[in-house]
Amino acid sequence: YPNILFDLYGTLVDIRTDEDRPEAWAALARFYSYYGARYTPQALRAAYLAEVDRQTAGRQSLRRDSHEAHPEIELAGVFRALFRAGGIEADQTLAVHAGQFFRVLTTDYLRLYDGVPAMLAALRAKGAKLYLVSNAQAIFTACEMRALGLEGAFDAVYLSSDYGCKKPDLRFFRLPLEEHRLDPARTIMVGNDPVCDAAGAKAAGLAALYVRSNLSPDGPPPDADFVLPEMDIPRMTAILTGQPVSPSRPAGPGR
Description:
Blueprint: E1 3-6, E2 13-17, H1 22-34, H2 41-56, H3 76-85, H4 92-106, E3 107-112, H5 116-125, E4 129-134, H6 138-147, E5 156-159, H7 170-179, E6 187-191, H8 194-203, E7 207-211, E8 226-228, H9 233-241
Parallel strand pairs: 1-4, 1-6, 4-5, 6-7, 7-8
Antiparallel strand pairs: 2-3
Helix pairs in contact: 1-2, 1-4, 2-3, 3-4, 5-9
């Protein structure tokens, strides 16, 4: 497969976030007060959840993983609306900084899975075109990719918050296919979600490599061309570069 679409969180990046942490809301309320928007931590959290619900109204969502942070909307608009509700007309830059501050406060850890840089280098050496197709927030993910050394690692990056739709929506899969004229028969999706990544890719006419990671939802493995029962970047690399895969721990097919 000369064209490879990668999911990010749970596939290349291991992350743990907790948006229910009281001290995070207390710190964010203090941040808002610096600019004149005064909230108690409880009131700010309630206003945030209400604004997220308002902006996502009518949009079907499979799940709301905290590390994805409501990817079907552009979250900077939520943080800007919170300033406005507090009587302050904040610009986009301040809203983005408020959101990024909150992300830092609610993130326990952020790291690459072992072997990711070597895998991406091996795929580049083989001449593969690499695309990131992720259910994620641009205001968080661009910074996190930079922090992890992934900036510039992909030929193109597609983040759901920029487009108002997310995997498994076929419209999202069609973005890289149409913009880069990719042949679906020569393209594979790599991800850790059986519905968003594997089933979505198959519906779009792509091959699918599913890896069960610590961020995968519970349930049986999907109908994918390749199934890794646990995170194993060396075996993923072997599959994607066409190297022999040891038969002792079958990696596929998933059917």
